[in-house]
Specification:
The chain is of the alpha+beta class. It has 14 helices and twelve strands. The chain has three domains: 96 residues; 92 residues, Endonuclease I-creI (Roll), CATH 3.10.28; 136 residues, Homing endonucleases (Endonuclease I-creI, Roll), CATH 3.10.28.10. The radius of gyration is 26 Å and the shape is globular.
Length: 346
């Protein structure tokens, strides 16, 4: 598996190499690579002396392997050509992708910064209604809401760059392997979330208040529930599931009875910690239910659902003033519950 990218004006890199007398005296025709293979070897340039195509790549501005670019950059920097360090080179990358597909990132926005509003949208989307496939590392997001699918695409473009995506059945947005590679570098785990039970990246818990609010607003839009009954108190709730099939019956009951946090849904626990970071009081996690799946008389799957709720006047007052849930009906429920609680206080 190799990343590849094309650098704007890549031929300039070859010209600078010429000024270093790396390929000087060989004429302008880079295609005549055989004339200077010996010079490449004598100067320990990190290009295979057998690779004519590699040398032509630099002259013609074609796709180059990321590893090769890093080697060339290191070589030039050692020769005091500081402008060819990786920090400067990444500013001029025009295309980033993998060999297995021609669906690539156009004008990638290096460095990919997830400490932004768009980053705080992408991560909860992948952890709640999305994921990364194990077969080809494609990332996807599933939601019936066109608005949320569009929001996902806009966030991806805002952080990563323009990437061709596939929409399936007006339900799912899929991105190519290169996006999956970027997300796994953050600690996201490919595969079924209920089985792998991945944790939120640690940097999420260092978000400032505005990004925590953005994160939780998206999490509520995907997997949260807002109760706004005509009578009685409402609440914000999350009910999330973890697959515990691999554990014995005794262990499953131990997890259920003693609330063993290391086995509970990590996206649930992550959301709890983010609410607490905002100063909200949280009730939970609480055991919800368990489900045993049987086929032809044999068990093949076992899951537990765990829950938490956010209740109370102060919590709703703060969240109603600051949360901007990107689904209108959920935002209205939040505002209605806050209004109802304030009327009751009066």
């Amino acid at each position: 598996m190799e990343l590849s990218f094309s650098i704007k004006n890549l031929s300039n890199l070859a010209q600078e190499m010429g000024s270093l007398k790396i390929i000087s005296g060989c004429g302008s025709d880079i295609d005549k690579a055989s004339e200077f293979k010996g010079k490449i070897k004598r100067r320990n340039i990190p290009i295979s002396k057998y690779s004519d195509s590699t040398i032509r790549t630099f002259r013609r501005g074609r796709l180059a392997q990321l590893g090769l670019i890093k080697k060339i950059s290191k070589f030039l920097v050692k020769k005091d050509y500081i402008k060819f360090n990786l920090t400067n080179l990444q500013k001029n990358i025009s295309l980033l992708g993998v060999r297995s597909t021609n669906r690539r990132i156009l004008n990638p926005k290096f460095p990919f910064d997830f400490n932004t509003k768009e980053g705080a949208i992408i991560i909860p989307m992948v952890f709640h209604d999305g994921g990364i496939t194990t077969r080809d590392l494609e990332t996807f997001y599933c939601n019936l809401s066109f608005k949320l699918r569009r929001r996902y695409k806009e966030a991806i473009e805002g952080v990563i760059g323009k990437v061709p995506c596939k929409e399936r059945r007006n339900l799912e947005v899929g991105y190519p392997k290169i996006v999956g590679l970027i997300l796994t570098s953050l600690g996201l785990i490919p595969g079924k979330r209920q089985i792998n039970n991945p944790k939120f990246p640690l940097f999420v818990f260092n978000y400032p208040e505005d990004l925590v609010l953005e994160f939780l607003a998206q999490a509520i839009a995907d997997d949260g529930w807002i109760s706004n009954p005509k009578k009685g108190s409402g609440y914000i709730s999350f009910n999330l599931t973890v697959d515990l099939t691999r554990f014995s019956k005794e262990k499953r009951q131990d997890i259920k009875k003693n609330k063993l946090l290391e086995y509970l849904p990590n996206n649930l626990l992550g959301n709890i910690n983010l609410f607490k970071k905002l100063g909200c009081k949280v009730a939970g996690p609480h055991f919800g239910n368990e489900k045993l799946y049987v086929r032809e008389g044999k068990e093949f799957r076992y899951t537990q659902e765990w829950r938490f709720q956010v209740r109370g006047y102060k919590n709703f007052r703060y969240l109603a003033q600051n949360l901007k849930i990107p689904l209108k009906y959920k935002q209205e429920k939040l505002l209605n519950e806050d209004s109802k609680i304030r009327m009751r206080k009066i």
